[in-house]
UniProtKB/TrEMBL annotation:
Origin species: Micromonospora costi
Annotated InterPro entries: Bact_HTH_transcr_reg, Chorismate_lyase_/UTRA_dom_sf, Tscrpt_reg_HTH_GntR, UTRA, WH-like_DNA-bd_sf, WH_DNA-bd_sf
Keywords: DNA-binding, Transcription, Transcription regulation
Entry protein name: GntR family transcriptional regulator
Gene3D superfamilies the record matches: Chorismate lyase-like (3.40.1410.10), Winged helix-like DNA-binding domain superfamily/Winged helix DNA-binding domain (1.10.10.10)
Domain HTH gntR-type: 9-77
Annotated GO biological process: negative regulation of DNA-templated transcription
């Protein structure tokens, strides 16, 4: 009797799995959020426990990704590219070092009013004119990170012209070292988890509600002078952010 029960259960799981994969293939795109377990159970005419087990199988095989408290999303099959954020290195170079091809899918440089959080860092009045640099980075052709940086119009008496940053051949750190005569020696990054909104949907091509990581980055020169203030939005199904931490080696003996 036990073998009969196990066989029936396995058949039910296979049937539910087939229905769910058919549903995903016909109604959802890569990055889309799936309905919750209760709704899926009703559509597939199975129990929530069966749905939960099938989703667990698909997650282990990389078909879907599950984030506790957020939901289940269709995986796009793109290899995640690990990039370190523990040092002052351009995103372009981090992607290249991982063996992948970085490109700019979109980029623009314009004058804009300085947001309040940026103004406090750069020592400006809110709404003061600043440079705004928008760049959409892709990894192997897949949109991965959108970065919006703000820079002062001038630094230490030098006029800044960041128009060259619309090219993948020039990164922010190279530009600032050349334009200000002061390399970025330190970058502070503050991370937060968010859900994609309409703007992220348009820029990164993910569904509204897709989990993302945002970061606020401030770059400082050798004397502690703030050089730029930026916001980064990252698709963690394409890029994974890695922080390496270490301490002094304890003395021997």
């Amino acid at each position: 009797m036990r073998w009969d029960w196990m066989a029936r259960r396995e058949t039910a799981l296979q049937t539910a799995r087939g229905r769910l994969q058919e549903l995903i293939g016909s109604e959802f795109r890569s990055g889309d959020k799936l309905p919750n377990e209760r709704d899926l159970a009703e559509r597939l005419k199975v129990s929530r426990a069966t749905v939960r087990e099938v989703l667990g199988q698909l997650a282990s095989e990389g078909v879907v990704t599950r984030t506790w408290g957020i939901g289940t999303f269709v995986h796009d099959g793109v290899e995640r590219v690990p990039v370190s954020i523990g040092d002052v290195t351009a995103l372009r170079d981090r992607i290249t070092a991982s063996g992948h091809r970085p490109t700019l899918q979109d980029a623009a440089v314009s004058r804009a009013k300085c947001p309040a959080d940026c103004a406090a860092v750069l020592g400006l009045e809110p709404d003061s004119p600043v440079w705004r640099v928008d760049r959409l980075f892709a990894v192997d052709g897949v949109a991965a990170a959108w970065i919006r940086d703000h820079l002062p119009l001038r630094f230490d008496g030098r006029e800044l012209d960041p128009s060259g940053l619309v090219s993948i051949d020039l990164d922010m750190f190279e530009f600032l070292a050349s334009a200000t005569g002061m390399p970025v020696r330190r970058a502070e990054i503050e991370l937060a988890a968010v859900l994609a909104d309409e703007e992220a949907n348009a820029r990164l091509g993910v569904a509204v509600g897709h989990p993302l990581v945002t970061a606020t980055q401030i770059g400082y020169g050798a004397n502690g002078a703030p050089l730029f203030h930026g916001h980064i939005t990252v698709r963690t199904d394409v890029l994974t952010l890695r922080i390496s931490r270490g301490g002094d080696t304890p003395p021997a003996g």
